[in-house]
Amino acid sequence: MAATAATTTSFSALSKHSLSLNTSPQVPQKAPPFLLPKTLQKPHLSHATHKTHITLSSKNPISDLVSTDKRSSDDFSSYFDDDDDKPREECGVVGIYGDPEASRLCYLALHALQHRGQEGAGIVTVNDNKVLQSVTGVGLVSEVFNESKLDQLPGDLAIGHVRYSTAGSSMLKNVQPFVAGYRFGSVGVAHNGNLVNYRKLRAILEENGSIFNTSSDTEVVLHLIATSKTRPFFLRIVDACEKLEGAYSMVFLTEDKLVAVRDPYGFRPLVMGRRSNGAVVFASETCALDLIEATYEREVYPGEVLVVDKDGVQSLCLMPHPEPKQCIFEHIYFSLPNSIVFGRSVYESRHIFGEILATEAPVDCDVVIAVPDSGVVAALGYAAKAGVPFQQGLIRSHYVGRTFIEPSQKIRDFGVKLKLSPVRRVLEGKRVVVVDDSIVRGTTSSKIVRLLKEAGAKEIHMRIASPPIIASCYYGVDTPSSEELISNRMSVEEIREFIGCDSLAFLPLDSLKKLLAEESPNFCYACFSGKYPVQPKEVMVKRIGDFVDDGLNGSPESIDGGWVQAPLNQDVPKVSEAGKLSSLT
């Protein structure tokens, strides 16, 4: 991989250059939210064979979502790498309070969360002079940070961030955590999620004089904090978050406080742990806690604000919501199997997904294999339930960079072959069940099927450990627009014919909900149903959480392919001729 770019920055409490501020006189603050004690406790089968085919009946009810990209539908490979046809989590966050090696622990925790974002990383700490010190860079965590960089990040208070983004010449300026100075000090923030009212908030802030340096919706949060009239600081965060709509799990850093916030629906995960020396740790997944030997205590609850300072931990209720909508794809694909997410073991969830597929979509076979790595646990579950041996029929290379040199004589399915190698001795002459976590556009699945056939597989039966994806995500997951999703355009039988396998079955949505039992209403299934818990309220909505502009024009409208049209049958705010909205409320 090319050498990484990195920046190191200090932010003193006197810095006022990052934000355009409203300096009007202070107004009476809101009554503080309720303070809790400081001591915290704690289907119907959709499958097809060449004899009997059951087609998918449901399509995205708001299929009029359209991409602004002008490329033809046949040129989908230009959107993503051919060998990486998966939804992608936007990022992972870490926060540490009270450890003298906070930056090094943050570095290790980010390494554990590397699967959540591989294209940028950053850490912010508070040094002995109460100055926020920042190091950010493009690349993997191990490429951005080294011993000398970590030596520049002293202190016992730190936040960190890993991100996924599209490529762009201005990507470095979008790498988090962001740090800004305002009239009462400095603040850093790392954000996982996506705000569905980003354009409205940005338009109002710009009308009032705010200047934006990035195309990230996270910068909106900093401006809202800076322009808030409430005191003290954590109430500024509460005041800002009350204006946000969508998904956000965030950690904030000031000269003496660490604050963790989760949106009222709890779309994205955020957990709290504690090290043996009493240091408090927040992270997107428990796998980060495990690596730095922090004991998992509990989740940050939906709608909760946790403030950590010298007085301990305070819990505040932001905006309670009676029914959380946690992202089910965390259990299907995003999170590591060794994590506990939303109070459930990811490994156990995926194993049961495989068992359900074996029960509801049985087929005579000789061997069960997985598309590594995310399909492995579900394949183990399928094999155990079916009584068929699991073997490694596909070997994944973990040493392939994002760019590679192809010989002048083209190699068929080159990208997939670089990452996946079939084991002929496992496959030749066999009836093979292939378990994968999801099908997005179908291009990678068709290449895998072709790869297995070339290795001598007699029959290939695809089993997908998720329901069909028919709708885009607005809550911090990078998915193609709805018209690119193969399950939104084709029936299960048509998909089977497209990818060329002998049979195809998805995890039934009803069975998934039955597995979750009484917790089922607490999960978001928008990508499977098109029913959004928080409807987009703007004419155009960012398709992914943190789109990077081209470095030449910072206007949101200039971001090619970064916006999709919201459902046309709903009320949306009217924009004046000047392109501004009149109110934050």
From TrEMBL:
Catalysis: reaction(s): 5-phospho-beta-D-ribosylamine + L-glutamate + diphosphate = 5-phospho-alpha-D-ribose 1-diphosphate + L-glutamine + H2O
* Cofactor(s) demanded: [4Fe-4S] cluster
A molecular function GO annotation: iron-sulfur cluster binding
Identification of the protein by name:
amidophosphoribosyltransferase
Domain Glutamine amidotransferase type-2: where? Answer: 91-311
Enzyme superclass (EC): transferase
Q: Which GO terms describe its cellular component?
A: cytoplasm
Which InterPro entries does this entry report, sorted A to Z?
Answer: GATase_2_dom, Ntn_hydrolases_N, PRTase-like, PRTase_dom, PurF, PurF_N
Family assignment from sequence similarity: In the C-terminal section; belongs to the purine/pyrimidine phosphoribosyltransferase family.
Tell me which EC number(s) this protein carries: 2.4.2.14
What pathway, per the record?
Purine metabolism; IMP biosynthesis via de novo pathway; N(1)-(5-phospho-D-ribosyl)glycinamide from 5-phospho-alpha-D-ribose 1-diphosphate: step 1/2
Organism in which the protein naturally occurs: Populus trichocarpa (Western balsam poplar)
Which Pfam family, any one of them, does this sequence belong to? Answer: GATase_7
Biological process (GO) annotations held by this record are: 'de novo' IMP biosynthetic process; purine nucleobase biosynthetic process; purine nucleotide biosynthetic process
Arranged from A to Z, the UniProt key words for this protein are: Glutamine amidotransferase, Glycosyltransferase, Iron, Iron-sulfur, Metal-binding, Purine biosynthesis, Transferase
